[in-house]
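Deliverable D2.4 — example input (structure tokens):
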């Protein structure tokens, strides 16, 4: 385990220790002064700042060339949190997300539900056209990691849903590590030190497993709503290693599409797919 991976694990353990002792103190009197109970949280915050700075400094190193690959989907989609508008696109360099992009499917026959200020608080995944859409290999590659055992939760695309996600769920998933944030996900090795990661896959939808060789355009899995996700969508990124805790983001462009901006609609490949 690298020193950065060890620091990431320690960061999570410190927060977990703080939370556990805080809950326990509601029931029993701790055998130490009140101020001592805050030490794990203080240490975790200091370590978190260090990890963030390290991630930023690593990105400032020798920049990687943009890698051209095929789009991971077909049909009509629109972009969210795009690196065409800002980097890091998701507000952090951690987990290799510097150039990550989120995309949602657009379908006139099944419009994507609008954000709800009051009601409904949650929606079924089947209400979103992206749910169960096939995800395709962006190049000939080798599968190095694949998992799809986590559940697909209800949407969080309402005011109360977002508040719950930000204040409760995201914190809990962060303590659980990268796999709880990304949910069901797979990682492909493209060669030349480049890896692709697809996140928030549908539970039980994997058509491949670690060690498989895949061809460009081959179906890998289906779009879901697992992990730290507000609604069914595809989170896609390129990075320079398979370990999300240590990888740096790599810029990409999709063949025939480029890098769509936030809110920009694009059509990739054939506009039809089968469910």
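Example output (designed residues):
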């Amino acid at each position: 385990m690298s020193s950065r991976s060890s620091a990431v694990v320690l960061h999570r353990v410190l927060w977990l220790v703080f939370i556990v002792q805080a809950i326990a103190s509601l029931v029993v009197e701790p055998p130490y002064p009140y101020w001592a109970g805050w030490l794990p949280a203080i240490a975790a915050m200091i370590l978190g700042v260090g990890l963030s700075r390290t991630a930023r400094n690593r990105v400032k190193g020798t920049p990687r060339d943009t890698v051209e690959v095929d789009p991971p989907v077909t049909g009509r989609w629109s972009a969210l949190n795009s690196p065409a508008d800002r980097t890091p696109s998701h507000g952090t360099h951690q987990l290799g997300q510097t150039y990550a992009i989120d995309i949602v499917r657009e379908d006139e026959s099944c419009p994507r539900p609008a954000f709800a200020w009051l009601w409904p608080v949650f929606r079924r995944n089947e209400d979103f056209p992206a749910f169960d859409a096939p995800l395709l290999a962006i190049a000939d590659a080798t599968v190095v990691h694949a998992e799809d055992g986590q559940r697909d939760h209800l949407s969080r695309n309402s005011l109360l849903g977002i508040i719950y996600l930000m204040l409760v769920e995201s914190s809990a998933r962060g303590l659980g590590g990268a796999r709880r944030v990304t949910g069901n996900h797979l990682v492909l090795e493209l060669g030349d030190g480049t890896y692709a990661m697809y996140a928030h896959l549908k539970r039980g939808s994997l058509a491949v497993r670690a060690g498989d060789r895949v061809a460009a355009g081959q179906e890998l899995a289906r779009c879901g709503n697992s992990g730290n996700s507000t609604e069914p969508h595809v989170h896609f990124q390129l990075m320079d290693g398979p370990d999300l805790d240590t990888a740096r983001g790599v810029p990409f462009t999709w063949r025939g599409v480029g890098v769509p901006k936030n809110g920009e609609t694009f059509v990739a490949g054939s506009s039809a797919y089968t469910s």
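The mean pLDDT is 86.
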